[in-house]
Every structure is written in C-alpha cells, then in structure tokens.
Amino acid sequence: MRTVEEQRARILSLAEPLAAEVTPIVSAVGGVLAEDLPARFAVPPFDNSAMDGFAVRAGDLAAGVELVVVGDIPAGATSVPEVGEGQCARIMTGAPLPPGADAVVPVELTDQPWGQAELPARMRITEAVAVGKHVRRKGENVRVGEPGLPAGLAWSPAAASSAASLGYAEVPLIRRPRVAVLSTGSELVAPGEPLGFGQIPDSNSVLLAGLCRQFGAEVISARAVGDDPAQFRAALDVALAADLVVTTGGVSVGAFEVVRQVTEGQIEFTKVAMQPGKPQASGVLAAPDGRKVPMLGLPGNPVSAFVSAWVFVRPLIACLAGRADRWPSVQARAAVGWSTPPGRRQYVPVAVADGLATPVHALGSGSHLVATLALADGLAVVPEDVEQVQPGDLLTVHSITA
Q1: Is the N end or the C end of the chain the one with fewer CB atoms within 10 Å?
Q2: Which NCBIfam families does this one have (predicted)?
Q3: Do 192 and 258 fall within a single domain?
C-alpha cells in the first residue's frame, strides 16, 4: 500500500495554482494574492494628528500657559497655517500636522470645550505633552517601496482596506477554485426523502460540498449519480467545467464500481495505508475545452470520505488557490484506549476537552458512523506502527473546525 505522504505527493503533482486575474480590491473576498504588493503610498501618507486637540510646539508648553490660536485644521485640509513660538492651531484627528508644530495637546488637556465650538483666539494648557505626543509620523506603518501585502495572502475585507491604503485599486488574485462533487450509488436518495428497501440518504454530496467550501473553494455543483456507467459518464462530462472534480464511491474492487468502470486507464486506483480511507483514486481528465482537470475519487463510506477530504482534497484546493497548506493541530491525551489497524495510519474523529481526546463513538473510526461525525472537533492521528492506543497516550489531533 502507498503511504499517506506518497499519495498526497501524487495528488499535489496533478495541479498547479490557477492563473491570476487582475481584480478590483472590493470584489475579491475569498481569492488569494498572487504577487507581493509593495507600498506605493506611505502609510500614513503624511504626519497627522492622532487626537482632536491643538497642534503645538512642545517647547512652549507648561501647565497654565496660554497660546495664540492661528487657525483650524480639519481632516482633509489642503492648506495649513504655520505654528510659530507661542502659537497653536486647532486640529482634528487625521488632519495634517502643520509646519512648526511637533506635538498635539488633546482638547481634554486644555480649557476648551469638547465638540463643536467657535475657534477661540487663545487656548490655555492644563497639562503639557512631550515632543511627538499624539502624532502619527509619515510612513511609520509602511514606507514607500517597503513590503505591503505578501503573495499567498487570503483576500479579505481587511486585505482590501490595506491595499487601498497602499495605493491599489486592483490586484492580481487567484480566484477560488471551482469544484464539482459527484456522489455515486444507485442506493442514494435525496436528503429528507422516504427510504425504500436498500436505500440510504445522500449525505456525501452534502458533506463534500460543505467541506470544499470550508477549504476555500467555490462549489459549482454537487449531486448524486447512480451506478449506470452512461449516467455517470454524462454527469462527469458536465462536472469537467470545474477546476477540480471530487467523487465519492465506486473506487473499490466490487462488481459495480462505476468510477473505476468509466475512468480506468485515465485515473489511477490505489490503496493507501490509512484507516478509514484505504481505496483512493486520482488523476487528470481532459475537459471538452482542452483543460486538464484533476479528479479525486474518494471512498463511498461517509467517514472515509470525510477523512479523505481533509487529508487529500484540502491540500489540493490550497495548491490550486496558490496558498500555503496549513492544518492546525494540538497535542491531547487519549481519554480511553482503542485498537488500531496494523500497518495503517488511523484517523479517529474525537472531541477534545481539558487536554483529553475522546472518540465521538464507541466504534472509533468506523467508516459508516456519519450520524456522530458532527460531534467531533478534531481527527486524532495514530501512527502506523502503533498497535494499541492506551489511555493517557499523547496524540496529535488535527482541527476540523477551522
């Protein structure tokens, strides 16, 4: 059997980051920055006041000193008065510091009223401030030409705001990868529909679509398909409009493995030393428009599909999106003991509390235990060479909530 690392390397070799597109900063949330953005503007772009108050020369100040007020400086002012010895200017937060001034006295430290008021002729200081106090210096956040935003950054409202302050209206972004999900099996019926003999609800298309969105992709379709090869072939042709196709079921060694029947020779089918999730398929298919579209075939049992998505689909979506793959983990001790499959890495859905990891079902990593999957907040990883987990054993637990 192939190791998890070997299978992950195989999968990541199937794709490369999608092409970047120049995108308005306000309409790109969810994309990934394709290039470093150096600062075109200094941030702040000029020395400005951090407070509503009075721009002063710190050397003139002492408690009780009166200064002559030479003008008003609102935010957005296009001209400012010079402040000479014994003088000051009323100034608002964000307004440019006038020549001659080297500090700002907040209005609270003067004899002037708060809020809207006539410009006074004189102002008395009640408490002195030091040079530079309440002044935001030009470029103290970022100077022109310095690194602003790094390539690989996930685009967000905060990133758009930063880009605007750095001087950008458009940026090169890799869009969210588009994913199509096909859940195979003639036994599947739509969620909420009555079940006939031998039928089960289609939980996999719901599960995989939600996970792909959680991983940062755009899901363009998610549907169940029966085990008829012609039906699956037709559905697959439509799904190839996506950047990635993810299927569940039909990849094992049974008599009705529709994914294998339709794609064998184009897609590689293998066994991976993991539990759950041993049968896996991966490869590249040719889309009608000539694009090469990676396809991952996951097992049909829902917990197997869930684990496989976290282990293999998640890093492939990150690769397509042009961002680093990060899967946060914590260390926790096993609250109870359980058995492990010989020679296979085990992924057990667990709930973590007070440093203890507890399987969310007594049957542990059973691939059919979908009803309790929502109670887990992590996947505990048991190495291949561990034969039995004992209570108190230290485990790595990967987050499945981020």
Answers
A1: C
A2: Glp_gephyrin
A3: yes
Element (H, E) at 303: helix 302-308
- Whole-number Cα distances in Å, 103 to 8, 54, 88, 126: 58, 8, 10, 15
Closest CA to 179 of 327, 67, 293, 27: 293
Q: In sequence order, what E strands does 150-252 have?
A: 170-174, 178-184, 188-189, 200-201, 218-225, 244-248
Task: Tell me the residue length of the chain.
Answer: 402
Supply the range of the domain harboring residue 153.
Answer: 21-41+149-174
The CATH number linked to 161 is: 3.90.105.10
- List the one residue out of 112, 61, 66 whose CA is nearest residue 90: 112
Choose the final residue of a domain: 288, 321, 354.
321
**How far apart, in whole angstroms, are the C-alpha atoms of residue 251 and residue 258?**
8
Scanning the structure block, which residue is given the tokens 């994914």?
259
Q: What's the burial of 117, exposed, middle or buried (CB within 10 Å: 0-12/13-18/19+)?
A: exposed
Quick: pLDDT tens for 29-71: 889 999 999 999 999 999 999 999 999 999 999 989 999 999 9
User: How far apart are alpha carbons 100 and 107 in whole angstroms?
Assistant: 19
Q: Do 99 and 83 form a contact (C-beta atoms < 8 A)?
A: yes
Bridge-based pairing state of the strands 292-298 and 244-248: parallel
Which tokens go with 22? 């120049």
Q: At what angle do helices 314-321 and 4-12 cross, to 10 degrees?
A: 30
Q: Is the pLDDT of residue 397 over 90?
A: yes
Task: Determine if the pTM surpasses 0.90.
Answer: no
Closest CA to 291 of 247, 240, 245: 240
